[in-house]
Amino acid sequence: MRIEPFKVAVAEQVLSDLKTRIRNTRWPDSAPGAPWSQGTDLEWLRNLMDYWAEEFDWRAQEQRLGELAQFRIEIDGVRIHFVHARARGGRGIPLILTHGWPSAFFEYLPLVPLLTDPVRHGIDGPAFDLVIPSLPGYGFSERPRRAGVNYRYVSALWHRLMSELEYERYGSGGGDFGAGVATLMALDRPDSIIGIHLTTLELAPYIGSGSPALSPAEREYIGTSDLWSQSEGGYKAIQSTRPQTLGYSLNDSPAGLAAWIAEKWRSWSDCHGDLEGRIPRDFLLTLLTLYWFTGTITSSMRDYFDNRWHGITIGPEDFVRSPTAIANFTSQYAFEGDAPREWAERLYNVQRWTPMERGGHFAPAEEPVALARDIAAFFASLI
Amino acid sequence: MTVQRFEVPYSEAAVEDLSQRLVRTRWPDQIQGSHWDYGVSLDYMKEICQYWKDEFDWKRQIEKMSAFHYYCYTSRGVGIHFIHERGEGPAPIPLILTHGWPGSFLEMLKVIPMLADPASCGANSADAFDVIVPSLPGYGFSDRPTESGVNTFRIADIWMELMKELGYERLAAQGGDWGADVTTLLGLRHPERVIGIHLNSIPPYKPYLEAGTVLSEVEQAFLNEASRWYEKSGAYDHIQKTAPQTVAYGLTDSPAGLAAWILEKFRDWGDCDGDIERRFTKDELLSNITLYWMTQTIHSSCRLYYEDNRTPLHFQKGDYVTVPCGIARFPKEGPLPPKRWVERGYNIQHWTEMSRGGHFPALEEPELLVEDIRLFFRALRS
Q1: In this complex, how many residue pairs, one in chain A and one in chain B, have their CB atoms less than 8 Å apart?
Q2: What is the 3-state secondary structure (H, E, C) of chain A?
Q3: Which superfamily does B3-13+65-208+310-378 belong to?
Q4: Residues B242-262: what's their mean pLDDT?
Q5: Do the chains contact at B243 and A298, CB–CB below 8 Å?
Q6: Burial of B375: CB neighbours in 10 Å, binned 0-12, 13-18, 19+
Q7: Are residues A241 and B233 in contact, defined by beta-carbon separation less than 8 angstroms?
Q8: What is the C-alpha separation between A114 and B52, in angstroms, rounded?
Q9: Residue B308: which residues within 8 A CB-CB, separation 6 or more?
Q10: Which chain B residue has the Cα nearest residue A256?
Q11: What mean pLDDT do residues B269-291 have?
Q12: Under an 8 A CB cutoff, do A263 and B246 touch?
């Protein structure tokens, strides 16, 4: 296994082709009714696309990304991309942080200064050696071209990555798919894990026969989350059954890609319906350009398929013994429900439980300081 | 004049633009050896898009369409395109045929002459129909609704207006997919004007059930099967009924994306055992896809799911289709409700178990479908 330095560099031709495609977009008509009621709003998207083609400065973003130490390592026949940011002034607590869908490693970058040099940013607690990989099939990480790339598979890759970096024991954190990966890392190799820190509850615990009766709060959570699935879960239904079919349009049309991804950032962030009031345009377009340039929307969606049909089942014996912190960023615009602590305690050894006043699904991008403080306080309590 | 002649439009520039976009297609990758497991196979997509670009002749398809008489009827600002072919026989009765998604009026081209002029294909001219084939609002050459509320109920009412405008007081109706919903509503809401309805698929309707109704085992088994089917195959419905606009951007901008979205359904729902071209020629598939492309109607067609979700076909107390109903059950149409389930809402007078065919019988098994339509309505001709 060779670790090679990596630098983000998009070819000029790809950028000019992207601009040409945006200018040639063949737009659908607008749905009747209130803006956004039937999906991504036409006028909003036209503005965004206009900015993407005419004003967005990708090279400036690329330069910023280039300031971070990035690498690729080949594991199991695929090259995995990661940021490696060591603690300022000596060894920090090793911590691997994993993003989810539709996001990228890039979502975690706001945490880099805060956690590698906490003192300077007024954060109490230890400094960290951060490892921020791209999930297989996202951005600059390749995905094995076979079925079965699920949380468990990725968690094993991450253990190997940490071992290659000569870390014996480490923390793991994440949200969305990243929370699933962190959970499996702790389930499968608890000896290597200091503790895990989650910003969303990706995996449902076992609630079959023999498990304690559901509390009223748990029942309410399940009810809310079911309603959410009915009204908001179309993306998941299609991505977990026919990701390839959808991929043809999203990989061929920048507008299609932007609409698909932006809708989720708007629904899932704490933005009250005003996405750009919460997530800067340049951030969103950097993310979209990463998906576009690497052509990875289809491979990223396969996570839903593989985790559903080739996935893992949480059974009655499964319990994460490693200390677990859960930072509850549940102020999504499309509210998905508030899981009560007892729900999490069915699966996790919950040692820290922090309800957050603000922030939704994309905590590192939305509330980096609150998240960094919570991570630092949690790991300070474990060492 | 609310009914006017209509000429199928053709634009050389649009054909050229389509070709350019096909040349520039940015293909996704695919899991090795996964074929159709994750959705439409990449190899097949490349093959059919190559054909679309190099061999498919839209102009020739339009010339073939020109064998029929096209009209446009405007109802409250929404133009409805339709084919109208007068029957050749002693006493043709008017028959309105309604297509569904992701089909179009093109599905019906094989059966129109068979129904309008039975003698031309060796059948009895006493079975002739005046055939009317409209395009659903937001589909094909019909206008795209710009206001909410153009749902299957409204469409059924528009169909009745149209038929009255054509001078037909009483009529026969036939359909599948959305066409089955609309046809059901013609029978349900306008029994005095409907001779009978013939369906080649059962809409996902809910009959009115008195409190305490116990469903039969076969009905319960069907509902379970329907929900399993939905889990594996219903995602297109889920996204189209909740966020049609979001999925429409890519489908309107990318011909490959549009083709994949549509032809997946022909393969899944046709009686083809996974070999799509065993049932449908490339020209048939691409004519339909090109129609969606040229008219830019994938978004408006998907919006019918959104509308329907707000006004689903749930029978209320007293709702029952009293007019005679004929059902042709094609085996690959799935999931298939048992007769008991259908009888709760429909006056079933005719029930045919077909030996072959799927969701698009007018394309797949035109002879079987036409013979069943003739047989059913023969008994209702007075």
Answers
A1: 187
A2: CCEEECCCCCCHHHHHHHHHHHHCCCCCCCCCCCCCCCCCCHHHHHHHHHHHHHCCCHHHHHHHHHCCCEEEEEECCEEEEEEEECCCCCCCEEEEEECCCCCCHHHHCCHHHHHHCCHHHCCCCCCEEEEEECCCCCCCCCCCCCCCCCHHHHHHHHHHHHHHCCCCCEEEEECCHHHHHHHHHHHHCHHHEEEEEECCCCCCCCCCCCCCCCCHHHHHHHHHHHHHHHHHCHHHHHHCCCHHHHHHHHCCCHHHHHHHHHHHHHHHCCCCCCHHHHCCHHHHHHHHHHHHHHCCHHHHHHHHHHHHHCCCCCCCCCCEEEEEEEEECCCCCCCCCCCCHHHHHCCEEEEEEEECCCCCCCHHHHCHHHHHHHHHHHHHCCC
A3: Alpha/Beta hydrolase fold, catalytic domain (3.40.50.1820)
A4: 98
A5: no
A6: middle
A7: yes
A8: 54
A9: B151, B152, B181, B241
A10: B250
A11: 97
A12: yes
Per CATH, the number for A3-380 is 3.40.50.1820
B236–A243 C-beta distance less than 8 A = no
Q: Are A250 and A256 within 8 A, CB to CB?
A: yes
pLDDT in tens, A168-203: 999 999 999 999 999 999 999 999 999 999 999 999
DSSP code at position B210: -
Distance from CA of B107 to the nearest CA of A (A): 23
Q: Is the reported ipTM for this assembly greater than 0.90?
A: yes
Residue range A211-222: average pLDDT?
A: 97
* Nearest chain B residue to A41, by CA: B245
* Ranges of each domain in chain A: 3-380
> Which of A16, A230, A249 best tests the B interface by mutation, with the highest count of B CBs <10 A?
A249
Please judge whether A241 and B242 are an interchain contact, meaning their C-beta atoms are less than 8 angstroms apart: no
What percent of chain A clears pLDDT 70, i.e. is strictly above it?
100
Distance from CA of B212 to the nearest CA of A (A): 25
Residue of A nearest to B26 (CA): A252
Over 70: is that where the pLDDT of B373 sits? yes
Distance CA B42, CA A299 (A): 13
Tell me the average pLDDT across B184-193.
Answer: 98
Active-site annotation holder among A129, A176, A306, A374: A176
Is-catalytic flag, A176? yes
> Would you name the residues of B annotated as active-site residues?
177, 306, 359
Nearest to A31 by CA among A269, A259, A332, A277: A259
pLDDT in tens, B101-133: 999 999 999 999 999 999 999 999 999 999 999
Tell me the shortest Cα–Cα distance from B171 to chain A, in angstroms: 33
Taking only the tens place, the pLDDT of each residue in B326-367 is 999 999 998 889 999 999 999 999 999 999 999 999 999 999
pLDDT at B371: 98
